[in-house]
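User: I'll paste a sequence; please echo it back and then give the predicted structure.

Assistant: Echoing your sequence first, then the prediction.
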Amino acid sequence: MNQPSPESPEVRRREGRPALSRLHLPARTIEVVKRVAIGTYNDGFTHAGNLAYLSLLTLFPFFIVAAAIARAFGRGQDSIHAVTAFLQTVPPEVATVLQQPILDVLQARSGSLLWLGALVGLWTTTGFIETVRSILRQAYGVPFFRPFWEYRLGSIGLIVGSVVLLMLAFSFQVVLVGVEQLIYRALPFLAPYAGYLSVAKIAPALALFGALYILFYSLAPKKYRYSKCPKWPGAALTAGVWIGTTQLLPLAIDALGGYDRTYGSLAGVMIALFFFFIVGLGVVIGGELNAALAETPGPALEGSVNDEKGIVA
């Protein structure tokens, strides 16, 4: 792990800095902003570039894993739905670049080739998970202790769990849409209440927040994971950066006259990399925000440090 952030909870504890609860609201806000800014500047842009590269590298293997798991449950079409839902959360220029190659890869793999690709994809995708873990460890100031293979197994479990939750989210969305259509066609007297079911339209955004929350919660150091330190602000901020970039990036590209004159036929790829770089920076800022709001747990949770070292089972 790189050097921990100078504003991490562990560094603040060793230096005896006052807790946020002892500060007035204006001073507390300034302190949190300072912690996030310093932590992000420390190594944030390097991490964001790494995440941008890994996003393109692991995107295809992830959907291969999703396709294999979906077929194992007899829901082969869910992998296509996953691709469609993901492409709805990225700018149109990025979706245009990624859609057909991803679909081609999924259609070209079947049988043993699909499962072989899924095994390779699991290992490749864990690289992305481990990078996020490293970002959070650096933000909290807690180094690695457990063996490499334990972290990799945990990352594989997190990926498989994410795919299963993704399938459940899509199934729920399909059910809501079906019920809404049934009300409009067969039960018109309930039409005034059908609008409440339009929550299905924001399902991708909710799924994005849920996935990010699970990521921030699961990869946080154990002593902070099980404490009262908030995990949702980082997930909400990262989701906001993601959705905001999706909406604003096309406008910025149009205002700048497009990337075609600079990158030619590679313009689409460069836009995708730029998008994932901004999202990666959002992940770093989200992790730093959670760490900025965290205080070192009290003595009741100090045993979790030994658990990180493998002393406690």
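The two ends are 24 Å apart (CA to CA). The CA atoms of residues 53 and 199 lie 33 Å apart.
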